[in-house]
Amino acid sequence: MIRRSFNEGWLFRPKADAFLDILGRADAPWEPVTLPHDAMVAQERDGSDTASSQRGYFPAGAYEYRKTFFVPESYRDQRVLAEFEGVYRYARVFVNGDFAGWCANGYTNFHVQLDRFLRYGAENEIRVEARSQEDTRWYSGGGIYRNVKLIVGGLVHVAADGVRITTPEIDAELAVVAVSTEIRNVSAVGRTVEVTTEIVDAAGAVVATSVAPVTVHAGEPAVLRQRLAVAGPELWDLDRPSLYSCRTAVTAGDEVLDTEISRFGIRSVSVDPIRGLRINGNPVKLRGACIHHDNGVIGAATVDRAEHRRVEILRQAGFNAIRSSHNPASKALLDACDELGVLVVDELFDAWTRSKVGLDYAVDFAEWWESDVEAMVAKDFNHPSVILYSIGNEIPEVGTPAGAALGRTIAEKVRALDGTRLVTNAVNALLATGPDLFASLGDRARPGADDGAEQGGDVNDAMTRFREYLPILMTFEIVGTKTAEAMAYLDVAGYNYLDSRYEMDRALFPNRVILGTETYPSDIDKNWRLVTDHSHVIGDFTWTGWDYLGEPGTGRISYEGDVESVGALSHQGGYPWLAAWCGDVDLTGHRRPASYYREIVFGLRAEPYLAVHRPDRHGQPVRVAMPWSWSDSISSWSWTGHESRPIRVDVYAAADEVELLVNRRSVGRAPAGEKNRFTATFETVYEPGEIVAVAYTDGVETGRTSLRSAAGAVRLDVAVDRDLIAADDADLAFVTVTLVDGAGHLFNTADRPVAVAVTGPGALLGFGSADPRPTENFFDTVRTTFDGRALAVIRPTGPGAITVSVTAEGCEPATVRIEAQAASLVPGLPQS
């Protein structure tokens, strides 16, 4: 079927009262928007609404969209569908005033049949309603936040998501590509058609062809299965993610009834406790990043380029795998992972039958879970990057017999739809064992009971208070017994914060394969050693790879004497906290010190890394350091106003020892490497100039890194990620603004308001910084930098030259030019 973008020409407003709308008295006017569009991120945050704390103090709401579009007479004998890749939430679709379809899940890809409601040769209206509410533990966004496509095909056509490709036999000489094609006939008579399937390599050459007749009875689907031999296959793997296309044509004589193009990769996946995870027979350890679905300063809007850029940066940071927490990933993110060679754990649910917050998906689970599974598998089936389906995250009922039985039912449903991939479940044993775990302590004191902390709150709150006790608690016998059935039906057992069981469970469950589906960032050195030393542990996924909106302040550090408000849950910060502040990469895509530490632990970086603690906090006792936090440091030696004051410098290095030089004078040497948790720490006095870290192994220098202080006038450094972009709804330009001196050194203590103006065929989609507790919004044209940086996201509105001008007090203005052209003219642009 022919797909085209249906993202443009929409109008949006908060949902109006129906009676006021009829009377023409609805308060909110319609405003034009291009999809994907996040309806929530434009709202003013409300610090007095504690119930909204988990979503970053954004208010919930109801939204409506409408679009008029012309339907030609030629569509009368066609099947016409609208594909919605994600609407948050409770999407209801109306065509010309009539109800056409709905979907309860905010992350599920769904189709709505339009043709029975259409007026041919005339204008038509489609209207979509959605609402967000107290239904999530993070920032959800709202409205039509993912792509919409219009799909048109003949009465005899390839079903939507009807081409499914597997590669059951692979060796160096030959690969068998098995193609299953579902043909549908919605006409009144049976038809015999011819289906031609071609396999096309990356260079555009046809490498295999199969032609077969298919008889399709009226109103019934027919499935054609073809096996095509590809000689000398180029395998898809992490280093060379080679992709093929499958071209399907349905014909009757000289008439082409339908065509379809599906991308796929030729690769095999296997796992066992002795050889671990293997891709194409080669062992792979998963260097994993958990991520949420929002895109920072543009909210939940899932524009293709934003997803692609995120995968690019995570891959550059050393990650080779992504866990889509806690919902199905977007198509654009999977496309990016296919193209860049990143593996995916795609996750279905954060709740089954037991709610974690008031109106979450547990309310709809019983009615919708099977269709949600079907939708995710259909979306993922041809993506070589997807190797694991996760059926849930920290599901409370998995520790009960009924919950384990339900989990087995879900797992078997997944396997019935796709027997080529592995099934996991991200199990939190604290949640799964609950009161039974503490009851098993008997007369022993309940950890934390005498510390004055409240005992209420969710599992994250409990984990915050019990951080030091958790590793011990998780080794109790009851944890193994209560989760045994839930783990037994999985191909890979997902362990959330259960690293203390990795070794013991090798003996208790010798056939179990373990994946660290969620771990603390500060534990990566110890956890990665467990991963590399044990074949049955196939990887580690940190919480989180990329900072995200909502769960505000989960990774914060606060000091004695700070005046700090706390959110509705004690592990979260009060207003104006917005972001979790626990990502290796911040909201703008800038890598934080934890990212470079992780890269060193992974063995991917030889040079040492300098992380300088903020001198204004030197010597202050830490009151709260959340389990998901990192040190309060950045990579800079520009601390104006702190001259001659003490300062702490951490140097991350895999080398035996590190020497620190300040203005060519040695501060001293300190051991580093794995035995010292890859960190050498120095206390010195800040003086402007240069610091250098020199790494030594066996007395021989193995690498050095330096930082220089910024000096003189503050300058605006403005750079764009790509100066040539596609003039369509799928592309974006990311413009970074940095405060620097004449030599390009960062002025991290010179933060100031920065103004952005866009001229030409472009619009400002979002503007902000990595500040986790801002009071400004992402739609202001003026934002204050954070640690000397800000990010503007530009969306093209047509072809031509876009100019972005940046101004700030005390700085010379700066501009950058972006050229927007037709997608076919942009080299290297991923083609759909």
TrEMBL record:
InterPro entries: Beta-gal/glucu_dom_sf (IPR036156), Beta-mannosidase-like_N2 (IPR054593), DUF4982 (IPR032311), Galactose-bd-like_sf (IPR008979), GH (IPR017853), GH2_Domain-Containing (IPR051913), Glyco_hydro2_dom5 (IPR040605), Glyco_hydro_2 (IPR006101). Residues 646-702 form the DUF4982 domain. The keyword Hydrolase applies. Keywords: Glycosidase, Hydrolase. It holds the Pfam family Glyco_hydro2_C5. The keyword Hydrolase applies. Residues 277-426 form the Glycoside hydrolase family 2 catalytic domain. One of its GO terms (molecular function) is hydrolase activity, hydrolyzing O-glycosyl compounds. It comes from the Bacteria. GO terms for biological process: carbohydrate metabolic process. Residues 716-816 form the Glycoside hydrolase family domain. Residues 163-267 form the Glycoside hydrolase family 2 immunoglobulin-like beta-sandwich domain. Residues 62-133 form the Beta-mannosidase-like galactose-binding domain. Belongs to the glycosyl hydrolase 2 family. This is Glycoside hydrolase family 2 sugar binding protein. It comes from Pseudofrankia inefficax (strain DSM 45817 / CECT 9037 / DDB 130130 / EuI1c) (Frankia inefficax). The lineage of its organism: Bacteria, Bacillati, Actinomycetota, Actinomycetes, Frankiales.
